[in-house]
Amino acid sequence: MIRSVVRGIGSALPRRIMKNTDFEGVLETSDEWIAQRTGIRQRHIASDDETTASLGEAAARAALDNAGLTPADIDLIVLATSTPNNTFPATAVEIQNRLGMHHGFAFDMQAVCSGFVYAVATADLYIRGGLARRVLVIGSETFSRILDWTDRSTCVLFGDGAGALILEAQEGEGTIADRGVLAASLRSDGVHKDKLYVDGGPSTTGTVGLLRMEGREVFKHAVGMITDVIEATFSQAGITAEDLDWFVPHQANKRIIDASARKLGIADEKVVVTVNLHGNTSAASVPLALAVAVADGRVKKGDLVLLEAMGGGFTWGAVLLRW
């Protein structure tokens, strides 16, 4: 059978680093308060000349270099983002043009923090369906553009960045030993919309709007939803938590990460955590964390890796792949 195998990975971060201490004196908060409740120590914030498209392009080029490929080798670009450069056209099309790619097709996917997991699952379907042989999957965000910088409950949580994977069609045996995407489970439930949303949009206010969140409500639902979708993915693949080599969760809050891993029986040493370095970068969160773990040698060829995320909507999902 056809499997969607990872050929390359890349990432990109804005130049500016904003530490927790930078909020002190501006907001009623402190480094200790933020770190204790979230695990976040710093985040990257985009400058005026850094956009979702430019960061996405940089991550894409890094992934192409890592794979030893060029834009001519790519058939499809799927960009996960909630902070596009324009309402339309899709920012994926702008990245396509920036790469000098004038063939194939490109589109954006909007599932907020779950966007990259949704995009990997979608790319896998395009590959297995024969519509693309190589897909560039990007998660890129500039959430700093939609934050209320007077709201200490939200503005300290988020950052900017981009990560990218290249998936390629390769033949597998149809077993759990195959490399590539092995299983995926996606969910959403719009009843939770008002718990995490942006209070604007073209069809309602005619403005971009700002992020609003009921933090306690999000936390209350997060662990249960995450474990539910992961257990469904385990069931598809016929594995247990003990079979995993690495768990790469959405980097929103260290407490949520720890509670989810504990409930699933995933050992602490198998969990990739970068929330301290990047904050919550929404759709860029999972690929950024994965890129760190690949670069430092933790994730190696043949490892069984679980990706997971939950975002506004609510949306949530998991993808299991063998590196």
UniProtKB/TrEMBL annotation:
* Biological pathway: Lipid metabolism; fatty acid biosynthesis
- Domain Beta-ketoacyl-[acyl-carrier-protein] synthase III C-terminal, which positions? 235-323
Q: Which GO terms describe its molecular function?
A: 3-oxoacyl-[acyl-carrier-protein] synthase activity; beta-ketoacyl-acyl-carrier-protein synthase III activity
- Report the SUPFAM superfamilies cross-referenced here: Thiolase-like
**Broad class of enzyme this protein falls into:** transferase
**Record protein name field:** Beta-ketoacyl-[acyl-carrier-protein] synthase III
Q: Which HAMAP family match?
A: FabH (MF_01815)
- What are the catalytic residues? C113, H250, N280
Family affiliation: Belongs to the thiolase-like superfamily. FabH family.
Species of the source: Allomesorhizobium camelthorni
- Known role: Catalyzes the condensation reaction of fatty acid synthesis by the addition to an acyl acceptor of two carbons from malonyl-ACP. Catalyzes the first condensation reaction which initiates fatty acid synthesis and may therefore play a role in governing the total rate of fatty acid production. Possesses both acetoacetyl-ACP synthase and acetyl transacylase activities. Its substrate specificity determines the biosynthesis of branched-chain and/or straight-chain of fatty acids.
Write down the InterPro entries for this protein, in alphabetical order. ACP_syn_III_C, ACP_syn_III_N, FabH, Thiolase-like
User: NCBIfam families per the record?
Assistant: fabH, PRK09352.1
Region ranges (ACP-binding): 251-255
Gene behind the chain: fabH
Xref: Pfam families:
ACP_syn_III, ACP_syn_III_C
Q: Which UniProt keywords apply?
A: Acyltransferase, Cytoplasm, Fatty acid biosynthesis, Fatty acid metabolism, Lipid biosynthesis, Lipid metabolism, Multifunctional enzyme, Transferase
